[in-house]
Amino acid sequence: MVELGRFTLIFSFILTPLTIIFYLLFLKSKDLRFFISAQRGVILIFSFIVISSVSLLYALVTSDFSIEYVASYTDRTLPLLYKISAFWAGMEGSLLFWALTLVILILWLWIENRQDYRKIHVWAMIFNLGVLFFFNTLLVFLSNPFKTLPFTPADGRGLNPLLQNVSMLIHPPTLYLGYVGFTIPFAYAMASLITGKIDIHWITKVRKWTILSWIFLTIGIIYGGKWAYVELGWGGYWAWDPVENASFMPWLTGTAFLHSVMMQEKRNMLKIWNMVLIMLTFALTIFGTYITRSGALASVHAFAQSNLGPFFAAFIGGWFALFLILLALRWKKLKSKIPIENVLSREGTFYINNWILVIIAFTIFWGVLFPIIAEIVRGVKITVGPPFYEQVTIPFFLILLLIMGICPSIGWRKATLKGIIKTMLIPFLLTLITIPFLYLGGITRALPLTAVSLSILVFYIIIFEILRTAYVKAKVQKLPYITSLYRLLLSNKRRYGGFVVHIGVIFTAAGIILSTAFKKEAEITLKPGQEAEFMGYKIRYSHLMYEDTPHYTWFRAPLNFVNKKESFWLKPEKRFYRTWSEQPNTEVDIKTTLAGDFYAILEGWDKDGTAYLRVQFHPFIYLIWLGGLIMVIGGIFALLPDRRQKEPITQKQNNSKNSLEIKKGGEK
How far apart are CA 620 and CA 70, in angstroms? Predict the structure, then answer.
């Protein structure tokens, strides 16, 4: 299996540039035989990378410690699920998983367009394969997962305890799907530039891929936050860590791209913006990979030091240079002849929305990059902490929330201030009624009160817009209101799916604001049999528990939380894994209630059983996870075809015509 995995990697490395050459020969000669050869090349590349991936999985599951990667990330006592997740736990395996994900998407793209001979599609395949070739090169020459050891150890090093969490089965794969998925829209943008086909075709072609990538990236980020919250033992979910930021930046620019493409579809505007945004999104996905694997910045998420950093930097630089050259050549064709007539229009709010998202992404990028520059220039390692990011980005996030409320309420081209006020009047009055209840509920500080009130206002605006439109349609079409509402939601899934996504953003924003502003925390020391007070609860501690298992040794401090209404247990632990005994792992325990999460951490203990504990309360933190779920549901809804939508027949006719022309060209 080792040799099979190694040789199939080499075969895919050789076949990728050959397949690109066949596509180029087809573009030059129009000979269908070259196109067919390229198609077979795609299938073979897919087959070889799948075989290589299965070989590595087999080695991980069967504990083949002759392979350095298997010995580094697994051991004999590791549960089967975590042996599988070890596939993407290290640098070499994660690069192979990246290549596997990309080749699956390339095959999917090929299946959908296997009879499409148009230049734009062929060039898109070439650019996709070009990205794949880069990863194949790294895998074969610099980071081979099938590298063998000079001897076979009796057992492996084992998986880092921090990665032994169910979220790690979901977080990295979905994050990679989001990262890699943006390669498809990027490839079509480059194909559009190189062919000069600067029309709506490439935008409509990549819509599905963009939404899918955004959905998976959202899932990956949310699950990453959940993993940090549960596994790292510090009570947080987001620390503005460089690797966390690396996943958030393409999400921001990808979100801007999703909004911006609607402008090109509806009004034939922002063509240059769309090109720049998708290039930035693709570059940031590669930059995130570079940050994770180069060891350039200290991060709990990053891999060890490696020599791959310069190669990723050169790869990003090469693509940027090519993009800028093509953009310069097509500048006149891309430049929009339709100006934004008024800021008080849907175009105006979309444009402002784009700028704000890009500014936030650039701010985060600078915060990530500055320590690297400082180390190069001054030779001193520094860090950029949460205060910088929060002070700079929070005002922009609040403006974004407001724009989310204004945008659905105004039309294209031009809107009047009077019309906006009329549309927003009822939601605004409802928000004014709600604010006193928020204040009485304990939200008294200015910033949290403003942010929560703004979130509620946007929620009311979205709901009111949906209900008002359904009412108008019911009156015009003389339908029952429920029927009108049902038909309305199904008639434009992309628009109303976007509304659902915005509601998810509101829930997540509320969860972040409330859990941050009103978090409670106490450090307590308890001897066996002692009690402590926390938020009206008595915390009773009986004794320190201990158990030795084949995989790890754990120490547990059971805590009984009791008040007049309820009683529950939290049992935080420290684990000492057999192969990572020098690094104790904190296992927190969490009790979720309607008001929020009670969170307990075992910091340490003495020989007499005295426990050093930290207890926290995170109000309404579950709104963050709920908001993420709502965003994903909204994205999926936006992907579904609209009610009564019919497939156009021109595509098959065009393909048939192209097929005849190509065959004739081949005969010539």
Answer: 41
Q: Is residue 419 part of a domain?
A: no
* pLDDT at res. 247: 93
CB-neighbour burial class of residue 260 (10 A; exposed 0-12, middle 13-18, buried 19+): buried
Q: In terms of domains, do 77 and 216 share one? A: yes
Number of residues in the chain: 668
Residues 195 and 46 in one domain: yes
Domain that holds residue 562: 520-622
Contact 510, 518 (CB under 8 A): no
Residue located via tokens 């001054």: 378
What are residue 587's DSSP bridge partners?
A: 573
- What would the two tokens of residue 449 be? 């009160």
Q: What is the pLDDT of residue 665?
A: 43
Amino acid at 34: F
Report the alpha-carbon distance of residue 449 to residue 458 in Å, rounded.
Answer: 14
Q: Nearest Cα to 185, choosing from 280, 291, 321, 292?
A: 280
**How is 619-631 classified by DSSP, letter by letter?**
ETTHHHHHHHHHH
**Structural contact between residues 72 and 156, judged by C-beta atoms closer than 8 angstroms:** yes
Same domain? For 392 and 541 the reply is no
Number of independent structural domains in the chain: 2
Backbone angles phi, psi at 524, to 5 degrees: -130, 150
Residues 511 and 503: their CA atoms lie apart, in Å, by 12
Q: Using only C-alpha atoms, what is the Rg of the chain?
A: 28
Question: Residue 481: inside a domain, yes or no?
Answer: no
Q: Is residue 139 part of a domain?
A: yes
- Asked if residues 412 and 345 have their Cβ atoms less than 8 Å apart, the reply is yes
Q: Does 361 lie in the same domain as 223?
A: yes
Helices and strands, number each (H, E), in the chain: 21, 12
Residue indicated by tokens 């296992």: 587
| pLDDT attached to residue 647 | 42
Last-in-domain residue among 622, 637, 654: 622
CA 201 vs. chain centroid, Å, equals 26
Residues 525, 388, single domain; the answer is no
Return averaged pLDDT per consecutive 10 residues of the chain, 668 residues in all.
Answer: 94 98 96 96 98 97 96 93 93 94 96 90 97 97 94 92 87 93 97 91 91 96 93 88 91 95 84 94 90 61 66 92 95 81 77 93 92 78 85 93 82 72 87 93 90 94 92 91 92 92 96 94 95 95 92 94 94 89 85 95 94 96 96 95 54 44 43
Q: Is 665 part of any domain? A: no
Rounded Cα distance between 641 and 654, Å, is 22
91 and 234 assigned to the same domain: yes
Question: Three-state SS across 148-206?
Answer: ECCCCCCCCCCCCHHHCCHHHHCHHHHHHHHHHHCHHHHHHHHHHHHHCCCCHHHHHHH
